[in-house]
Request: fold
Amino acid sequence: DIQMTQSPSSLSASVGGTVTITCRASQSIHNYLNWYQQKPGKAPKLLIYVASSLQVGVPSRFSGSGSGTDFTLTINSLQPEDFATYYCQQSYSSPLTFGGGTKVQIK
Amino acid sequence: EVQLVESGGGLVPPGGSLRLSCAASGFIFSDFWMHWVRQAPGKGLMWVSRINGDGTYTDYADSVKGRFAISRDNAKSTVYLQMNSLRAEDTAIYYCVRLQLGEFGDSWLDPWGQGTLITVSS
Reply:
């Protein structure tokens, strides 16, 4: 199975600030990497697919980059509604695997 | 609007069984692979099972293989997860998710149902 490692596991940031979350795969997954946002008590929601493609309706302050084993989710101009937990997920091979999550909290 | 609605969750004793259902609407159900993903309380996401569009291929996480069975009824636009020999560690919210396929073998999970909670406890 491909292991997905996210860092950090949690962080504090201010409204208006910039957040960077890293996801590392245990082997190359090319660009088969997706990012999801989950708010408390809610289902995950797709943010970015294929490493850098923004899902329809997702604000442009979210961006993704990377290929191979190292990927990044960046949130610019952090808004109050962005405080949530973020997960990466590889779709290169079965079983699908997720990172452990990064909780973004208000500073 | 594409929608997935799970049902069938609840409290079940260890060793018991439960069947989850996920009713889909807003898209051609038989065109899509469907997945189940679970989330234990306070924990991360774990893939559980998948089924192809016509129901001829299924796949499971090692931790549920031989105990869970995924199936679908395309006439009813519904996917099921039959869960047998349940254990305390199966306690989780179970999400039904559609797999969207890209042009180059890539894929992503969207949308997700609201989830249904399974609690395995005596």
About this structure: Chain A has a mean pLDDT of 97. Chain A is about 0% helix and 50% strand. Residues 17 and 77 of chain A are 5 Å apart (CA to CA).
